[in-house]
């Protein structure tokens, strides 16, 4: 009986699953089409075994569990097809099938143990069922295959036991094959396969990246936002079908593991954002229906099950509330953690673009900042000519007076208007002078880099600013740009390339580390006893892979760094990125307060920062708290007084501590 | 702000027009939406939705025009692209006859605009000159439109210190919108790109001969009178600080013939040394 029914079961499940898969592919292809690159399919195994495993393996137990279960299943399925499906009942193959089923069974046991009391980040519902289905499939397949090696009694060939075994196998096949095609939890394997092959950012898998720093940190290989064609019919994403089809495919690959939810600063602060739910909502929108069947944590403060969507229905507000999109700080922590390489931030910015460019519903302060950027080239609406007011006594050389060119163009960023950041800039100038760096500034010709406009979805204003800045920069000669603002650093260095601006851009931490390496800076020994911790800015670390230089600088100062639990690529955002400080979505806690709590846990009395936004956000935490100092301030304070005064120009230098 | 009430009949035949001018940013001096005109457009959009029509006399390339058209979003109904009629003229031409002729030809019965332009002459006289020429009513300092039906519109006029006066104005009329009117909506790039600027054909602008005869000199900042508040009372000090400078020592004149009123005004202007030449010629 088994020998006749098993092939029928297997092929029936395959056929039904395939029909579902075709329907699923149609769902993905509702998105905007791009040229198909079929040859990328051959890249899939490498991307899966290398790049994806690299992320999954951050949690060793899960990685081993997945290898056993998934590897066991793939082998068991392939062998079952040969042995039971086509009836090539070879004992060696049978033995291999038994081994594969056993391997899968062991993996499934681990899955089930995790599912007894699942952590909050995991989705329940069908995902709880999947753990049982894995057991059913592996046990059923093991037992029905025992006769192949002659172990089992022939009784297995008939009777009630056979029916029970068949039922087990049928359950397993239904979950694994039919569910894969028809949107069950196993969909992730099918969608994930194609998602890895057709990923929108192939650079993420490129081991021959030209920038070595980004090879060490894979997450920063491709982080620039995609330019938007401003002549397109509608701008940004209004409905799920407006996404590129690769994005829809990516959403479908989600395994609802909740790693993104665990690291999302907005979720932790009780703001109405949960990256996992957002991706699931995109799946709901793509397939049509309501979010009532979602079995994980929702957006804080928003009830699950009240929203619905369809491929050609507007996403906001029926499917996702605008507040959810504006809560994102674009810190990229979710993208960094996602084992399926889903690009949450791209999706959020795409939807913001529609809200800002087509609907004109940017949150009030964000809209004001954009209006100011249009009118005055800076988000504060200030006179651009006052960009250098803080340096009135420093006699900083202007690049306009240096037609022969300079080594370093110092990009000030909009922190130049902020009194707190002006202290950092003064420190940086002091350091550059101490190291006798040949530098100059653009002065009032510098405009905002466009970072905030772009993250708020105003691609038109961003592109206008980018083009004007690029035109300005093309008039002057310099070797490299140095900036104390990681946002400018990222935008100038990685996003202007698409508009024809290719520059060597260095963050001041990198540049200062190089100055130390070259022996151009000498510092006094640090005072012992002070504990310092370092807060990695998202746009320096996760976006650009620079984790080492700031720590080198601190080491050069002789400071011991007490690392926070979440540091390096897992650093928690300060809450100030992506225009989130402007949209200011209410939550239960403030993100900088939580970050300061991380700082306190290390026992540090000073937190070293390297970004004007982080400085502002962390200093906004009420006292008493550890003091917030930019790396430049720490270095400038430790500078040994120059034994030989470098140039006459320096003699006029003002005392460092100027009240801002 | 609440939506103004309007009866179906009025909304059906409503021809609401907003006159827009080129604004100047107070810091950078860049062209953009003028603050009061943008509020006038906002008021028009709240009243007439996408059927609001914009008009501008001036340069077709002005950067402010797309910004006004970018406000045509979030409107009930079809919400088609915004439309702006452009009456081409040079900076030295007289906008009044152009606009008056066009408004008549268009059949507008409610015209919204700001109180004064942010560049050029900026005298704030245009609404009065237009109303005079068209024989329409004019109301200034409009903070809100309360009711719009039949041949009348009820508006709230802004007075100093947050006071409001309810006015009933006969249509057709010109309403000059005050800076305290509701904030204008964001100007979005998409609608601004789709908005249409249509140059009105067969109009010939005439040079502003009066203006050409004027003598121009740079404005001189007049010293401000210091307000000394002698009070031990916090409430009085606060009131004094919050008060808009209001005229004092004036007199209210009623029941005068137009000639007498003109005499009084000329006397006053002489006293203030605004008029120096003897009246007459």
From TrEMBL, chain A:
Residues 641-660 are annotated as: Disordered. The lineage of its organism: Bacteria, Pseudomonadati, Pseudomonadota, Gammaproteobacteria, Oceanospirillales. The keyword Metal-binding applies. This is (Fe-S)-binding protein. It holds the Pfam family DUF3483. InterPro entries: 4Fe4S_Fe-S-bd (IPR017896), 4Fe4S_Fe_S_CS (IPR017900), Csal_0991-like_N (IPR021872), Cys_rich_dom (IPR004017), HdrC_iron-sulfur_subunit (IPR051460), Helical_ferredxn (IPR009051). The keyword Iron applies. The chain crosses the membrane at residues 6-25, 67-86, 92-112, 133-152, 158-178. Residues 245-274 form the 4Fe-4S ferredoxin-type domain.
From TrEMBL, chain B:
The keyword Electron transport applies. Residues 95-201 form the Electron transfer flavoprotein alpha/beta-subunit N-terminal domain. Keywords: Electron transport, Transport. Pfam families: ETF (PF01012). The keyword Electron transport applies. Transmembrane segments: none annotated. SUPFAM superfamilies: Adenine nucleotide alpha hydrolases-like. This is Electron transfer flavoprotein subunit beta.
């Amino acid at each position: 009986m088994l020998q006749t029914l098993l092939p029928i079961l297997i092929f029936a499940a395959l056929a039904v699953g395939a029909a579902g898969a075709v329907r699923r592919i149609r769902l993905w292809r509702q998105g905007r089409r791009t040229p198909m690159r079929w040859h990328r399919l051959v890249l899939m195994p490498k991307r899966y075994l290398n790049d994806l495993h690299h992320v999954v393996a951050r949690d060793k137990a899960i990685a081993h569990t997945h290898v056993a279960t998934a590897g066991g299943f793939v082998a068991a399925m392939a062998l079952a097809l040969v042995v039971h499906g086509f009836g090539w009942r070879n004992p060696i193959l049978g033995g291999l099938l038994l081994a594969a089923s056993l391997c899968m069974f062991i993996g499934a046991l681990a899955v089930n143990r995790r599912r007894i009391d699942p952590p909050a980040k995991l989705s329940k519902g069908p995902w709880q069922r999947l753990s049982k289905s894995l057991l059913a499939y592996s046990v059923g397949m093991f037992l029905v295959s025992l006769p192949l090696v002659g172990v089992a009694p022939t009784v297995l060939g008939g009777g009630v036991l056979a029916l029970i075994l068949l039922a087990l196998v049928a359950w397993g096949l239904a979950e694994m094959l039919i569910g894969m095609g028809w949107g069950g939890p196993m969909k992730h394997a099918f969608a994930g396969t194609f998602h890895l092959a057709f990923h929108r950012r192939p650079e993420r898998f490129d081991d021959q990246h030209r920038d070595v720093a980004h090879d060490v940190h894979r997450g920063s290989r491709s982080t620039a936002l995609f330019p938007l064609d401003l002549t397109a019919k509608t701008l940004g994403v209004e409905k799920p079908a407006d996404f590129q089809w690769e994005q829809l495919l990516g959403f479908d690959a989600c395994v609802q593991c909740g790693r993104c939810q665990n690291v999302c600063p907005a979720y932790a602060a009780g703001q109405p954002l949960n990256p996992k739910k957002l991706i699931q909502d995109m799946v709901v929108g793509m397939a049509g229906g309501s979010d009532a069947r979602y079995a994980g944590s929702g957006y804080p403060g928003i009830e699950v099950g009240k929203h619905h969507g369809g491929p050609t229905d507007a996403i906001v507000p029926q499917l996702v509330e605008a507040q959810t999109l504006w809560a994102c700080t674009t810190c990229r922590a979710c993208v960094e953690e996602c084992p399926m390489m889903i690009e949450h931030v791209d999706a959020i910015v795409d939807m913001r673009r529609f809200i800002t460019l087509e609907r004109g519903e940017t949150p009030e302060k964000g809209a004001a900042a954009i209006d100011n950027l249009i009118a005055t080239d800076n988000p504060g609406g200030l006179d651009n000519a006052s960009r250098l007011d803080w340096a009135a006594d420093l006699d900083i050389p202007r690049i306009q007076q240096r037609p022969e060119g300079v080594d370093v163009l110092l990009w000030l960023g909009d922190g130049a208007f902020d009194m707190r950041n002006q202290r950092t800039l003064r420190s940086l100038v002091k350091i550059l002078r101490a190291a006798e760096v040949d530098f100059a500034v653009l002065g009032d010709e510098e405009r905002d880099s466009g970072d905030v406009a772009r993250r708020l979805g105003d691609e038109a204003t961003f592109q206008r600013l980018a083009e004007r800045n690029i035109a300005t920069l093309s008039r002057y000669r310099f070797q490299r740009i140095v900036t104390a603002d990681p946002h400018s650093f990222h935008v100038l260095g990685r996003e202007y390339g698409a508009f024809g601006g290719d520059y060597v851009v260095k963050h001041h931490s990198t540049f200062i580390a190089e100055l130390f390496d070259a022996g151009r800076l000498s510092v006094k020994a640090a005072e012992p006893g002070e504990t310092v911790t370092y807060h990695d800015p998202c746009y320096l670390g996760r976006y650009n892979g620079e984790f080492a230089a700031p720590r080198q600088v601190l080491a050069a100062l002789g400071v011991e760094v007490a690392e926070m639990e979440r540091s390096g690529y897992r650093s928690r955002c300060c809450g100030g990125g992506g225009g989130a400080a402007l949209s200011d979505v209410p939550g239960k806690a403030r993100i900088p307060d939580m970050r300061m709590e991380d700082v306190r846990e290390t026992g540090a009395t000073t937190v070293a920062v390297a970004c004007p936004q982080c400085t502002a956000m962390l200093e906004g935490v009420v006292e008493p708290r550890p003091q917030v100092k930019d790396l430049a301030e720490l270095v400038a304070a430790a500078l040994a007084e120059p034994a030989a005064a470098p140039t006459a120009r320096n003699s006029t230098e003002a005392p460092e501590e100027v009240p801002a | 702000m609440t939506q103004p009430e309007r009866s179906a009949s009025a909304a059906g035949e409503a021809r609401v027009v907003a006159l827009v001018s080129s604004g100047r940013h107070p810091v950078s001096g860049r062209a953009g939406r003028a603050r009061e005109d943008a509020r006038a457009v906002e008021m028009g959009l709240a009243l007439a939705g996408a059927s609001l029509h914009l008009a501008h006399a001036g340069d077709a390339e002005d950067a402010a025009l797309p910004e006004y058209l970018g406000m045509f979003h979030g409107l009930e109904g079809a919400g088609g692209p915004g439309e702006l009629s452009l009456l081409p003229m040079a900076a030295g031409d007289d906008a009044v006859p152009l606009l008056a002729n066009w408004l008549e030809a268009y059949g507008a019965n409610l015209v919204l605009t700001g109180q004064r332009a942010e560049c050029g002459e900026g005298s704030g006289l245009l609404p009065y000159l237009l109303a005079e020429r068209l024989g329409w009513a004019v109301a200034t300092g409009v903070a809100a439109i309360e009711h719009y039906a039949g041949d009348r519109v009820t508006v709230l006029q802004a007075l100093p210190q947050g006071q409001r006066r309810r006015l009933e104005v006969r249509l057709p009329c010109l309403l000059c919108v005050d800076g305290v009117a509701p904030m204008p909506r964001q100007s979005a790039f998409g609608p601004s790109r789709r908005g249409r600027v249509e140059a009105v054909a067969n109009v010939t602008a005439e040079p502003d001969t009066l203006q050409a005869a004027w003598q121009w000199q740079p404005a001189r900042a007049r010293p401000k009178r210091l307000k000394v508040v002698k009070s031990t009372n916090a409430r009085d000090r606060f009131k004094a600080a919050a008060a808009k400078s209001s005229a004092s020592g004036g007199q209210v004149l009623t029941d005068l013939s137009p000639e007498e009123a003109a005499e009084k005004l000329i006397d006053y202007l002489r006293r203030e040394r605004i008029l120096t030449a003897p009246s007459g010629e």
